Amino acid sequence: MRMLIVFRKTMREILRDKWMLGLTLAFAPFFVFLYWLWFQGGSTVYPVAVINQDQGVTLPDGSVYNAGEQVSAAIQAVTYSDGRPLLKVIEAPDQAAAEPLLRDRKATAFLQIPPDFSQTILALQSGDRSVTTTLTFGGDLSNTYYMIGANLALTTADAYVQQATGQKPLVNYVERPLGASATRSEFETYVPGTLIFSIIMLIFLAAMTVAREIETGALRRLQLTPMTSFDLLGGITLALLLVGALASMLSFLVALALGFHSQGPVWIAVVVSVIASLSVIGLGLVVASLTRSVSQAFVVANFPMALMMFFSGVIFPMPAMTLFTIGGRSISPYDILPPTHAVVALNKILTLGAGLNDVAYELTALVSLSVLYFLFGVWLFRRMHLRSA
């Protein structure tokens, strides 16, 4: 009963603070909308600077055969499964002209076709296997798009050579994508990560809501009542959990309205988000226990927020780092962060069409973290602020 009283009180205070509530609810939908604006035309197009120095060969019928031009056309013709362009050719006369394009990242990589390329292709067509030629490629290796652009351009050039010379590849490769991952637009691949934003942002609201009780003196008045720290933090957690559920569902609705298609049950993804919200709220309680004002809580909350943003796989994949193994599963330092499991679960559900049983491990981890952080937050809050309770 006392917990419900705190719940109602906290909800009234949250509703009064329209700016904080609005930012919490709008943060993730706003980023979903931004990603849709950036990638609504399809997916990323990778520009490749092609330095075609092929001199070509004049055939007996008077026509000119230029294999370099055909390779350039083949690269330009590479598309996604829906027909949208994947590669874009930028012609450059020499490497000196290509380098500014690479430095300014107007091109992801360069491919240099040698002067004797057409002659070599014709010789190979005639059965002469003694000839050879060299295709040179390169670029800014610190550019995250370099490997994609270079690999696709080289693969396309290699396929052209095999087709033009009638040679068969030494090894055949067959790609079998998981679920619907091959048909996802780039916008859809980013949706699971952006949905986690609505969960991570709850740490500010949780920390600042509890800190407000301390700063305004309301906590001291509550100490005069039979209310326990469990009642207080439990009621606040229920209110914040309601806000988290609303933020998650709003984010999902915006994503679906903008064309996102989930391959698995959306309700399971919402459950994952709500449970992850509970564990993040627990982290917020821990932060609040270490502070005495709203401004302090805001500053301190930035540290765990940054950890969750950059070390949980939300923005970019994390390298493998195994601490120990349980039941055949590797446990890494990142596993103490709730978004780590939430990102994996949402990708399984939304992209690979996983069901409830397929994300049982992630759900178990999220529930365990939620209980752990909440109980630790209650203990720390009692120790730091309710010594006399």
What's this model, at a glance?
With 389 residues, the protein is of the alpha/beta class.
Any chance you could write out the topology, listing elements then pairs?
Blueprint: H1 2-16, H2 18-39, E1 46-52, E2 57-58, E3 64-65, H3 67-76, E4 87-91, H4 95-103, E5 109-113, H5 117-125, E6 136-138, H6 146-165, H7 186-200, H8 202-215, H9 218-222, H10 229-257, H11 266-289, H12 294-310, E7 324-326, E8 329-331, H13 338-350, H14 360-385
Parallel strand pairs: 1-4, 1-5
Antiparallel strand pairs: 2-3, 5-6, 7-8
Helix pairs in contact: 1-10, 2-7, 2-10, 3-6, 7-10, 7-11, 7-13, 8-10, 8-11, 8-12, 10-11, 11-12, 11-13, 11-14, 13-14
Polypeptide structure, described:
- There is one protein chain.
- This protein has helices at residues 2-16, 18-39, 67-76, 95-103, 117-125, 146-165, 186-200, 202-215, 218-222, 229-257, 266-289, 294-310, 338-350, 360-385; strands at residues 46-52, 57-58, 64-65, 87-91, 109-113, 136-138, 324-326, 329-331.
- Strand 2 (57-58) and strand 3 form a beta hairpin.
- It has 389 residues and is of the alpha/beta class.
- The mean pLDDT is 84.
- The chain folds into 2 domains: 2-39 and 185-385, no CATH class; 46-180, 3-Layer(aba) Sandwich (abc type-2 transporter like fold), CATH 3.40.1710.
- The chain is elongated, with a radius of gyration of 28 Å.
- The strands form 3 sheets. The protein has a 4-stranded mixed beta sheet with strand order 4-1-5-6, sandwiched between helices. The chain has a two-stranded antiparallel ribbon with strand order 2-3.
- The longest helix has 29 residues, at 229-257.
- The chain has 14 helices and 8 strands.
